[in-house]
Amino acid sequence: MFRFSPYPDAKVEKHLQVAAQLPPAPLRFLTISGYILADPPPIGFVRNTSQSQLGAGPQVWNAARKAMASWIPFDLGWVSVRNAQAPIQLDELVAVEAHTLNLWSLNISRIVNVIDTSTQFGFVYATTPLHVEDGEERFFLEFDPETGRVTYSIQAVSRPRSWLARLGYPVTRAYQHRFARHSHQHLRGIINSANSSTID
Q1: Among 53, 87, 165, 189, who pairs with 132 as Cys (CB 3.0-4.6 Å)?
Q2: Which listed CATH number (3.30.530.20, 1.10.3720.10, 3.40.50.720, 3.60.110.10) goes with 2-199?
Q3: How many helices (DSSP H) and strands (DSSP E) are in the chain?
């Protein structure tokens, strides 16, 4: 799962093909509504939760939803979705590449739950055996019609799967928090930029 250089496209496609043959994992921890199925999580698993306000109003909501559908919250420079053409839909595979500590990892997850309404948009994905972590993660946008507030939340329940992730567990946890922080910041920045362009 780890390399000293980015994964070539052919390798990414091969990993996706292998993952497609794996049986879907049962939903163990997270629902799309944010309910924790196992609370507290089983021994060895930890839960991370973060939330931020992206702004207010229909314009912010539409921009946030469009960005999420294009995997913008993952487009962080050191993290990216390698199959960014993948739609957010049930059973879709997602290949996330991360560059940490001079190593590149490719992590395949499967979308196991989706919501798409006039006020909520998001998904839950479960990691496959082709992922350095074992668990589930939820990415969720919500628009409050009464206040106009648009919020973005990330929830994760996971434990290290690969021996290298277990060996460097404190570092792994630090990068999980870094991803959440950068994802919130990047999405807010993209939305603010889009709104400024509209105003101009």
Answers
A1: 165
A2: 3.30.530.20
A3: 4, 8
